[in-house]
Amino acid sequence: MELKDRASVLIIYTGGTIGMKEDPVDQTLKPFDFSQIMDEVPEMAKFAGKLDSYTFDPIIDSSDVEPRLWQALATLIRDRYDEYDGFVILHGTDTMSFSASALSFMLNGLSKPVIFTGSQLPIGRPRTDGKENLISAVEIAAAKDASGHAIVPEVCIYFGSKLLRGNRTTKINSEYFNAFRSPNYPPLAEAGIAIKYNLPVIAKAPEEEFSVHTELDTRVSILKIHPGITPQVVRNILLGAETRAVIIETYGAGNAPSAAWFLDIVNEACHMGKILVNVTQCLQGSVNMDIYATGKRLKELGVVSGYDATTESTLGKLFFLMGVNKDNDWVKKQLCESLKGEISK
Ligand code: ASP
């Protein structure tokens, strides 16, 4: 599992803290250009293979990420797929889990690594985490096994010494270097003196040819249940004419209020044909709508289980599935399948 000579990696720079500098006028962090990132990491010159870069215009704070960035990323990877052994995407941490999740569904038949990374501290700061994240992400993107196949043919996030399946991640920390966690799936690799790959949990390269799906339907809302939630709020979100699907973030194992008004609105939304997905607010564990009466009622009304998926992953999966097919019943069936290792059942 040595880094093969002449492995080629494309670094795609979208923005984020890793490439930011303090603006002398208002002291806020703003993105700067990619050549300055490379100036800060002279170690990259030692990379044995070919290293190219592509910079998005404009480079952004990832709070400004929109699905059109995902479409542009997917298209870029499709266009340059045959030229490179792997791809590293430099991206802000705030929405990195959303982007990595969406890309995991949009890139089909992936046999090469697509590694998102970034940093908590700008790469120009003395204590930056950006250097290690970038260098290791490139090494992982270039890594092949003895027969020349990519070790990690998946969309991942490399951050804070861990390689995580992208569609299993969530940002859990705004201050410390371990910003991401994959609460329901083990790390695919850990970096110490060497990068140790956990091969049994890494996806195998699929048989089908690589293809990219860029059609997304974004008519999704998120309803977070909380004590005191009002009928007006629930009605506005669940019955909104522009909403085709709603992710309901429920308590514990998938439980929600048993009040008649709440169940009536859920019932009405289901009868309107909307797709309602139950995702737990808990960081760890799965929805199981058979345990409590409050969960069971949702299932009987037609709410679909999100199992142990994150909200970020469910959002990307819905955008993707709804973009593929106009039939909501088909989408509901697909939601219950693990398409890219995003749920365990
Ligand atoms: N606001 C930044 C971003 O997401 C935070 C970061 O990169 O860590 O672009």
Summary?
By secondary structure, this protein is an alpha/beta fold. The chain is built from 9 helices and 18 strands.
Question: Helix and strand layout, with pairings?
Answer:
Elements: E1 8-15, E2 20-22, E3 29-31, H1 34-40, E4 50-60, H2 67-80, E5 86-90, H3 96-106, E6 107-108, E7 114-117, H4 130-142, E8 155-159, E9 162-165, E10 170-171, E11 180-181, E12 189-191, E13 195-197, E14 211-212, E15 220-224, H5 231-238, E16 245-250, H6 260-271, E17 275-280, H7 293-301, E18 304-305, H8 311-324, H9 328-335
Parallel strand pairs: 1-4, 1-5, 5-7, 7-8, 15-16, 16-17, 17-18
Antiparallel strand pairs: 2-3, 6-14, 8-9, 9-12, 10-11, 12-13
Helix pairs in contact: 2-3, 3-8, 5-6, 8-9
The structure holds aspartic acid.
Structural write-up:
The longest helix is centred in the N-terminal third of the chain and has 14 residues, at 67-80. This protein has 9 helices and 18 strands. The strands form 5 sheets. An 8-stranded mixed sheet has the order 4-1-5-7-8-9-12-13, sandwiched between helices. It is globular, with a radius of gyration of 21 Å. α2 crosses α3 (96-106), α3 (96-106) packs parallel to α8 and α5 packs parallel to α6 (260-271). With 345 residues, it is an alpha/beta fold. It has helices spanning 34-40, 67-80, 96-106, 130-142, 231-238, 260-271, 293-301, 311-324, 328-335, and strands at 8-15, 20-22, 29-31, 50-60, 86-90, 107-108, 114-117, 155-159, 162-165, 170-171, 180-181, 189-191, 195-197, 211-212, 220-224, 245-250, 275-280, 304-305. The structure holds aspartic acid. Aspartic acid binds next to loops.
